[in-house]
Amino acid sequence: MTTPVALTIAGSDSSGGAGIQADLKSFAALAVYGASAITALTAQNTQGVSAIQPVPPEFVTAQLDAVFADLSVGAVKTGMLGARATVHAIAAAFERWSPPFVVIDPVMIATSGERLLPADAVDALRTKLIPHAAIITPNLPEAAVLLSEPLADSDAAIESQGRRLLSLGCSHVLIKGGHGHGSESVDYLISANATVPLAGPRLATQNTHGTGCSLSAAIAAGLAKAEDMATAVRNAKAYISAAIAAADRFAVGHGRGPVHHFHRYY
What's the CATH code, domain 5-249? Predict the structure, then answer.
């Protein structure tokens, strides 16, 4: 029997709601074995990030080489990368190990507003990592930053930005609509041949900490289980929507609380 394995490359969230911790919870909830390479330590809680300690790029490399040398990694996701040198180190590891699927969540700003990717690292993300990606999962503000364009304000503008993001070298783009308005939150899955709108109800809760991390991790879990891209994205969206809907079962912290990764079990 082959055990599906997914690897997260991201920052650690000391409050457990986002980053490495959210990714590993998502993998486990979706029956995938999770491995990790930590890019940064953060001191944070549901109210914000108070300190960030980057992990030296050489040690990120050591973590990646250790995992790839031993585990049959079916899919990789990246989250908070923290520094330009770290982006270069990860890109070099992808060149050496050629993981079958890479999911890039271009994390730039925390839910609470703190910047998590320096401006000088955005170009490295754009030119060094995105060409390795099977899919990138920007929200509306992140898509605008990657393209150095204004925020898309219509369906046509979102699709147009998605097609320009494809030109950076990735195979698929999922532009997330959570920053939009209206009763529905619409994500757009864009490939060379199609644009598929994926609508879901906009859920009334402030407990959304870790949603982007968890969604991209869930996509990686699906790909590690040999789901095709469209199926992996649809299943991941259904999973995170249910996790958000169940988030108010928790009473964790005094700010934006976490989603309920294990809503199926308790």
Answer: 3.40.1190.20
